[in-house]
Design a protein that fits this description.
Radius of gyration: 23 Å
Strand order of the largest sheet: 1-8-3-6-9
Helix content: 40-55%
Structural class: alpha+beta
Order of helices and strands: EEEEEEEEEHHHHHHHHH
Largest sheet: 5 strands, antiparallel
């Protein structure tokens, strides 16, 4: 596989003919015009004017576009990547104002010939920072943001563009536990915070962390803590005195 030693930034277009390959460097794909269909590992998605994509090194990917298109591509050498960026899966995000600003700065460098390679290198720490910030898997972020709602594995799998059976295996490798256990642990931790910091009735806390009944929260505490929520509240407040 081809290797690179420096950052490479350029405008690229893609044809309607499917191409499949992999390379030793990573790619950041930022939209300029049109759409790009891409399959990367187990993910299948369509990049458009609102979506950017990070492709890790050595990830086999298939891509094509059936319409006029243009994308800003940043090839990133393996040596410049952090460990968390080396996982063999892709990440897609919405093109927010931060990424629009980064896109503008990259374009500003490559549209003025000759390309200032040192300027690209100076810009890369900012790019790397936002890559790390945004790389938490969407489904895990969703759990932390929506723990008080009903969460299905099917919904979580769809957020990662995986089928349900593959998602469960992927989640286990990513977190060391199952989706249902992870959700329980997030809800348990949120309930602990509320028991420590508020005088809310147990039933209200159960509802606030996404459980329909007080008995469900009691079973959760007995399973993981060996005591009831009321006993946990009493115990923590005694320790705080």
């Amino acid at each position: 596989m081809e290797k690179i030693n420096d950052l490479v930034a350029e405008r690229r277009t893609y044809s309607a003919i499917q191409d499949t390959h992999s390379h030793c460097y990573a790619q950041l794909i930022l939209p300029l015009q049109g759409q790009l269909s891409i399959i990367a590992g187990a993910q299948e998605l369509r990049l458009d004017h609102e979506t950017l994509f990070f492709l890790p090194p050595k990830c086999v990917h298939t891509f094509h576009s059936s319409e006029r298109n243009e994308f800003l591509i940043l090839d990133i050498p393996h040596s410049m990547l952090t460990k968390s960026a080396l996982h063999n899966r892709g990440y897609s995000w919405k093109l927010n104002n931060q990424w629009k600003g980064i896109r503008y700065l990259i374009l500003n460098e490559i549209d003025h010939k000759p390309i200032n390679q040192s300027a690209l290198k100076e810009l890369y720490p900012y790019i790397s920072f936002y890559l790390l910030q945004d790389q938490q898997p969407k489904s895990i972020s969703y759990i932390h943001e929506h723990y008080n709602e009903k969460i299905t594995v099917q919904k979580l799998a769809a957020l990662e563009h995986y089928n349900r059976s593959y998602y469960s295996d992927w989640f286990l490798k990513e977190t060391g536990t199952s989706p249902s256990t992870y959700i329980q642990e997030v809800r348990l931790n949120k309930a602990k915070e509320l028991l420590r910091s508020t005088d809310l009735p147990i039933i209200h806390i159960a509802i606030q962390v996404g459980l329909e009944h007080q008995s469900s929260l009691t079973r959760l505490f007995q399973k993981y803590e060996g005591i009831t929520p009321s006993q946990f509240r009493k115990k923590t407040r005694i320790l705080e005195k």
